[in-house]
């Protein structure tokens, strides 16, 4: 996956929504409604320290939520927010008494949803320790045990639920990034990776090369052998290309019988050899019994001032030229001289 997906947001709950930052602002509204009156109440009854702590927690949470909503880095570390929340509910429990013990549960659930597993175990253990200590000091051992296991059961149930959500989320992301027929990455992914490759060129001067591949006379294959056989050819073609390229190279399906291979950190000269290898290999592969299938390929490497659209259009022009010049060949778009050249076999 491109770095874009993970870089900005470390909060678990937010990653389910692709970092759109809408979950925490909603939570902050709920926290305002619940915690603001509690802060005011404590200040009125003279519990200034607790009142102030709750007010600080609300402000910190609002600041982070606002940053998430605007797509900025968190001004206050999320671990500090969690420690503030734990301190607030624990101190409230010790100050206002057993009636406030119920707040431990929603705070624990929010922590589980927000933090990676190990961090949430640490924070929840802290919460459990302080609350059980309160019950033990004010009630008896049996009540302490009852509370301890009720909390543990809640935490385990939430954890199991989160594992399911995580698995489904991963599956959904994978499915939505791939073409259903061939399993190649889809066009949306191509746009993300192209912009990463262009950024790489701008910041680190690393070249990448785009190879556009189109099956020759594919309509004939469909017409003669049927659509199902045509599909089979596309599936075989993808596994054939995959077998020829490196792990770090990326294969996308961008149209019916049109594919793109992105070779990150690869200069044009190397890409020319890869393209010729792909062409020769596909020609000799048994993609469809008794029939030789060929492809035409268009190449374009990153250049200065290149945009995503221009990059794709130059590779497309090279592919079009390869078709025009007789198919089963590789052409490249020379950005320096703005012209299309044949790539020697
Ligand atoms: N089997 C199958 N066929 C598809 C799929 N997507 C598009 N096609 C077919 O691919 C064919 C593409 O035909 P054209 O664009 O005319 O290109 P071509 O016949 O390959 O000719 P050249 O590209 O000029 O060599 C069309 O007949 C489409 O119906 C698909 O998912 N499966």
From TrEMBL:
Residues spanning the membrane: 21-39, 45-69, 81-105, 117-137, 144-162
Top class in the EC scheme: transferase
Keyword rRNA-binding: no
UniProt KW keywords: Membrane, Nucleotidyltransferase, Transferase, Transmembrane, Transmembrane helix
EC number(s) reported in the record: 2.7.7.65
Name used for this protein in its record: diguanylate cyclase
NCBIfam families named among the record's database cross-references: GGDEF (TIGR00254)
Pfam families named among the record's database cross-references: GGDEF (PF00990)
PROSITE patterns reported for this sequence: GGDEF
InterPro entries the record matches: Diguanylate_Cyclase (IPR050469), GGDEF_dom (IPR000160), Nucleotide_cyclase (IPR029787), Rev_trsase/Diguanyl_cyclase (IPR043128)
Organism of this sequence: Pseudoalteromonas obscura
Residues in GGDEF domain copies: 206-335
UniProt keyword annotation of Signal present: no
Domain of life: Bacteria
Reactions catalysed according to its record: 2 GTP = 3',3'-c-di-GMP + 2 diphosphate
GO MF terms, alphabetically ordered: diguanylate cyclase activity
